[in-house]
Amino acid sequence: MNTSDFLIQCIQRFGVNGWAVRNFHNLQHSNLSRQLKEGILFMCEKLFHLLIMILGERYQPGIGKCTLQQFYEREIIHLLYLDNASFADIKEAIPHASYKEIKEALDRVSDLVIFTDISNVTTEKYKLKEAFVDQINPFYYHYSSPQYNQAGYIRRERASTSITSCLPPKAPEFEDNLKPILRIFKHPLFVQLLFNAIDRYDQRNEFSSERLLRRAMFLMAMALEEELNGSLKHPTNEPSFSQQAESLEIFKLLGSDFESKNETLIILSQWIMEKFDELKNPQRFAEISLQDVIMQE
């Protein structure tokens, strides 16, 4: 299946054919009930969430270039991000992993902490090491709805002290036979979907929401990261993701005039603009990086 067919089938499967049209929000929708409008938005959020999982969840041997141990480590990282947990709790959450595999993963990504309650009963629990927080994906595919909401709350709380908590985590490369999946990032229909979500939010249109905007910006950040590391290079002369986004003026929407009460979105928009500037001016950023290296020496 080619990329166009895949995206079109996803749009049809979620029933958001109309929303995907660029001028959909300018049409008359007085005959649509509030419940139906909210349903359209909900299905758009589900579509964007699916794209995040397809493009970003690669910590699985055979899908991404990683080991089974790295897969278990990532499972544990996302569990401990929500709360400290005992060994028994972790083993229950990952029943297919052996004692040895879980222990090795815990030794790498966590610290053992002793808790004592008012009855002087001690409990051993594992706490996530700070160095692994930047590997958190708030849209992690194994999170339940309550866990997703909890991760979002923690993310917002950490936004003021940790920029990386607002950004997509770096993912391993896809296995060679699955690398064509990355073509989604450069497909005009994908870029159009992002534009629809961001532009309609900018206009405070009823067919937009902060939840949908968050997913659109997250996907945009993922695409820019892939473009910067060279993963989206293709032998043809087709326009890059950033070129298509620029032609739709998406970056203008996320520039200095972007407004949101959500600090994570502000930080994400600033990061997106910095990466866009880096793509537009690679020589200048190469010189800055060289100066940093010289200063460190």
Automatic annotation (TrEMBL):
Matching InterPro entries = UBR1-like, UBR1-like_WH
Record function comment: Ubiquitin ligase protein which is a component of the N-end rule pathway. Recognizes and binds to proteins bearing specific N-terminal residues that are destabilizing according to the N-end rule, leading to their ubiquitination and subsequent degradation.
- What cellular-component terms does GO give this entry? cytoplasm; ubiquitin ligase complex
Q: Name one GO molecular function term.
A: zinc ion binding
* Protein name in the entry: E3 ubiquitin-protein ligase
**Keyword terms:** Metal-binding, Transferase, Ubl conjugation pathway, Zinc, Zinc-finger
The organism named in the record is Panagrolaimus davidi
Membership in a protein family: Belongs to the E3 ubiquitin-protein ligase UBR1-like family.
Annotated catalysed reactions: S-ubiquitinyl-[E2 ubiquitin-conjugating enzyme]-L-cysteine + [acceptor protein]-L-lysine = [E2 ubiquitin-conjugating enzyme]-L-cysteine + N(6)-ubiquitinyl-[acceptor protein]-L-lysine
